[in-house]
Specification:
Elements: E1 3-10, H1 14-25, E2 31-33, E3 47-48, E4 58-59, H2 60-73, E5 77-79, E6 83-87, E7 93-97, E8 102-110, E9 114-116, H3 122-126, E10 132-133, H4 136-139, E11 147-151, H5 155-165, E12 170-174, H6 184-191, E13 196-199, E14 202-209, E15 214-221, E16 226-230, E17 233-236, E18 240-242, E19 273-275, H7 287-308
Helix pairs in contact: 1-2, 1-7, 5-6
């Protein structure tokens, strides 16, 4: 027999947990499925220094555990299974978990997030959180007056490099071609920064370290030359991939796969379906903005259900 729920939330990051807090307090009895990565992308970092209310910073794990516990305190049912199938052709929406459980949902909040694209190097995985990062605004502060590298040649890479240039002694940009793919304005911005050095026609062979932290990177030029650079931090900025594939047949997405929402709301193109967090945000991708959008999604879902009643 199908489980019937008023509000189903998919995703266990700041957006999903915040949506569960607000939906619980609105007596929607939400059910939240955390998916494969409870805590979301935030769990790839350690100390979070830019979340409001923590003047000394807060470790990512207790921050997310606190959000989760707060949602449970108000009555949210939080589960560890993964939503594997979705049929949103009619309401109530029909979904199935990895455990074979079937759910009928009167409203749906998609908060599945976005995954950073990585280079795929073993050393990249080994030093993730120990000098390797995919978020300059999250982790750049740790490298004040130090030397870092940014991989990528698009707008994201240029934005990350420009941001880091305001904090760091030196910023290398590792670009695999002889041109930047970024917009003209972003190209001019990085070109005008005296402490940004662009390493053209280069690919990363390996990230170097002492076992505890990053110390350098081994690079390969297109002409076959191999050389090393000394760095303290390595930022991967080759893009993000929104986790929206399961819902793309039913809701509108942009060319990159981000779910499109209406104006300042969390409403998608399908009535009763709302999106929050990085799955619909290609621009900011911060824990605090994800949490705020989770709040909006719960409030939008509450209004929608109230109108339907």
């Amino acid at each position: 027999m199908n489980e019937k729920v008023k509000c189903l939330i998919i995703g266990g990051g700041p957006a999903g947990y915040t949506a569960a807090i607000y939906a619980s307090r609105a007596s929607l009895s939400p059910v939240l499925y955390e998916g494969p990565a409870p805590g979301g992308q935030l769990m790839t970092t350690t100390l979070v220094e830019n979340f409001p209310g923590f003047p000394e910073g807060v470790d990512a794990f207790p921050l997310m555990e606190g959000m989760r516990a707060q949602a449970e305190r108000f009555g949210a049912s939080i589960r560890k299974a993964i939503i594997k199938e979705a049929d949103l052709s009619s309401r109530p929406f029909h979904l199935k978990t990895s455990e074979g459980e079937e759910i009928e949902a009167e409203s749906l909040i998609i908060a599945t997030g976005a995954c950073a694209k990585w280079l795929g190097l073993p050393s990249e995985a080994a030093y993730r959180g120990k000098g390797v990062s995919a978020c300059a605004t999250c982790d750049g502060f740790f490298y004040r007056k130090k030397t870092v590298a940014v991989v990528g040649g698009g707008d994201t890479a240029c934005q990350e490099a420009a941001y880091l240039a305001g904090l760091c002694k030196k910023v290398y940009m590792i670009v695999r071609r002889d041109v930047l793919r970024a917009s003209k304005a972003m190209q001019e911005k990085v070109m005008s920064c005296p402490n940004i050095e662009i390493l053209w026609n280069c690919n990363t062979r390996e990230i170097l370290g002492d076992g505890e932290s990053v110390t350098g990177a081994s690079l390969l030029r297109n002409d076959g030359t191999v050389f090393d650079i000394e760095i303290d931090g390595f930022f991967v900025a080759i893009g993000h991939h929104p986790v929206s594939e399961l819902f793309a047949p039913w809701v509108a997405t942009n060319p990159e796969g981000y779910i499109v929402t209406e104006g300042k709301s969390s409403k998608t193109s399908l009535e009763g379906v709302f999106a929050a967090g990085d799955v619909q945000d290609p621009d900011y991708r911060q824990a605090v903005t994800a949490a705020a959008s989770g709040c909006r999604a719960a409030l939008d879902a509450e209004r929608f259900l109230s109108e339907k009643r």
